[in-house]
Amino acid sequence: MNILRSMRGCSGNDGCCASHRDSSWVLKMIVSGVFVFLFAGLTQAKPFKTSYEQQAIKVSISMSTTSVRVAEPFTVTYELTAPSDQKLVWPAVADQLGPFDVIESNDFFDIPVDSGRMWKRVLTLESIQSGNLEIPPLAVNMVSSESSQVQSEPLKAVNIAAQPVTVSSVLEGRADPTQFRDIQSVVDVKVPVENTSPWTTWGVTGLGVISLACVAFVVMAVRGRSITPEKWVLQQLDALSAKVTENSADNHHQLTELTDITKHYLALQYDIPASQQTTHELLQLLADRNIGSTQVRDELNSVLSLADEVKFAGLDLSVDELQTAIQTVRQSVPELSKPLVPATTIPEVA
To answer: What is the mean pLDDT of the segment spanning 264-284?
Structure first.
């Protein structure tokens, strides 16, 4: 004990160490307060997201904010995840959604995810009304995946609850210009000087350094977990190839899955609506944007056309032919993943 006191610069009596004990308690209180603040921030990191499950459909609703001013745009994102054997049909989008004006809407169909297929709708809304408003509920119809028509008889409907939004007027919170106060004379106020312990200063500084290090570690970890479209499609193709080897009796469904993987990869890589286009439309778009070489586009055309014949003409496909189609798509990925080079025009010679 005497050695510890000597290291702290204390004498033999207990009164000398009282200030050090007080500083230790102050440091503990600061550390506890910072951790409580960080924990509260983490628990409120996503205050505008709601997730639940309805009729085996996972429903997720995300809003950029729930409190806006008049005519201030905000976004609401609906994500519905359904089993692979079911298809969802979004209701039509009008210019008006309850008390809100629809500025922009984007729908994403049949996105492959781990638990099935995802249907996503992103709406950008605004309102010129003020008060506690609600985004009206939505009813999303569910049809069989074998149905090729949008107006097919729905099996059942998924009802998405209304979402509350507070819209405040731009005049709220302003001072009343008729209520002025006279300017008073200057009053000198003595500011008390507090003696800050060096331990407190070093503790706060050290805690700030540790917090920055933790933030940097989290950022690097998130970046390390990101995956490029090229890696994603190669993983999906490897998994599909293994599935074909294990179960060769479901070639029709597996070829459809190959088509979905290929189109979803093109949509991720080039930001194009590949999943909503026919084979002819997709190949024409690739040619117009100079995506891939002519040989690569011809190979993709052969695979997608083969899938169309199997789907619409009932063509039988062997396991070797299906594996060859998977290998064809895999060989096209490296060239399709290269950055696009703008096409240069050769000037005409007069």
So the answer is: 85
For 108-146, give the DSSP string.
EEEEEETTEEEEEEEEEEE-S--EEEEEPPEEEEEEETT
Question: 143 forms bridges with which residues in the sheet?
Answer: 87
Beta bridge partners of 103: none
Rg for the chain, CA atoms, rounded: 31
- Pairwise CA distance, residues 69 & 9, whole Å: 60
Q: What is the C-alpha to C-alpha distance for residues 113 and 83, in angstroms, rounded to an integer?
A: 10
pLDDT higher than 50, residue 9: no
Q: Quote the crossing angle between the two packed helices 251-270 and 229-246, to the nearest 10°.
A: 180
Structural domains of the chain, with CATH: 49-168 (2.60.40), 229-336 (no CATH)
| DSSP at 155 | S
Amino acid, single-letter form, for residue 323? Q
Asked if 202 and 168 touch (Cβ cutoff 8 Å), the reply is no
Closest CA to 69 of 162, 160, 161, 174: 174
Sign of the dihedral through C-alpha 333, 338, 340, 344: negative
Residue 84 has pLDDT above 70, yes or no: yes
Is residue 160 within 8 A of residue 141, CB to CB? The reply is no
Adjacency order of strands within the sheet including 163-168: 67-69, 163-168, 131-135
